């Protein structure tokens, strides 16, 4: 692996005198979730591998490939940064983007992969992959959350509020159109020990269709956002009881990722996508099934409880947290018994 580190975002280098919303921007590098996902396939921009993820600008060897989006210099232009953000986030394609998108939502990543298999001639399930990374490997500034960046630069956008630009995007992100998007820039070196990838075909063949059938519904709204909102609504309104089969399928799907580091958290993330009610009764089902999966399950769950950022508009992430909490509480209760 190259000794060169990532191209870091340094909002702290911007003078508050030239950016009134500096206070909003400086927090964009904080609170990065422990796990992030990226969908990749033959039509993906840039390059994605287990050793690095590179932007389109980096692959094209552009002069700006190592330049921080927030680089502060004599020609610092908030309006240009606003244009580059909305160009990347809204896929306007006016610039050769140096940004790379990630998501903290497994639901969004899976839907996006399925969406790509259905649209624009379709990419094969074998060629579409889900990459998961443990962000503990990265220094501060390797990733930023899009929400704070949008908020800080939206007033510099030249696109009117009633058209697709940063101002409208901020309105979406402030409500249920929040999909846990994060960005890296240039080249992001990866340590293969802290990453894992799997083809969508393998997930399809190992129970993903049975775990969440609606994910594959071609009658979902055509837009990514509309489809994810529909899927979230199903998760929030479900009343079906969770079974041991559901837990086994979730564990099997997590096991499709070769790196065992991710098996415990991904089991709970996949289980959070099962359209079943999550209540106190679930803890017994999950506990009985997962305690036999390995002695490290309990300490890993205890560590994970505080490592993922929650959001009221991301029910799939809240369900993941609730499953972790219920499992941990059930195990502690057993440990306290005489």
Q: Hey, roughly how much beta strand do the residues contain? A: 5-15%
The general outline is: globular
Low-pLDDT ranges:
none
**What is the tally of helical segments?**
13
Write the H/E string, N to C. HEEEHHEHEEHHEEEHHHHHHH
Query: Structural class, from helix and strand content?
Result: alpha+beta
N-C termini distance: 51 Å
In short:
InterPro entries: DUF7587. The chain has 338 residues and is of the alpha+beta class. It has helices spanning 22-25, 56-59, 78-89, 106-118, 146-153, 166-173, 200-211, 224-237, 244-254, 263-272, 280-290, 297-304, 315-336; strands at residues 35-40, 47-48, 52-54, 99-103, 129-134, 144-145, 181-185, 187-189, 195-199.
What does this structure look like?
With 338 residues, the chain is an alpha+beta fold. The protein has 2 domains: 11-197, no CATH class; 238-336, no CATH class. It is built from 13 helices and 9 strands. It has helices at 22-25, 56-59, 78-89, 106-118, 146-153, 166-173, 200-211, 224-237, 244-254, 263-272, 280-290, 297-304, 315-336; strands spanning 35-40, 47-48, 52-54, 99-103, 129-134, 144-145, 181-185, 187-189, 195-199. A 3-stranded antiparallel β-sheet has the order 1-5-9. A 3-stranded antiparallel β-sheet has the order 2-3-8. A hairpin with a 3-residue loop joins strand 2 (47-48) and strand 3 (52-54). Helix 11 (280-290) packs across helix 13 (315-336). InterPro entries: DUF7587. This is DUF7587 domain-containing protein. Residues 32-155 form the DUF7587 domain. It holds the Pfam family DUF7587.
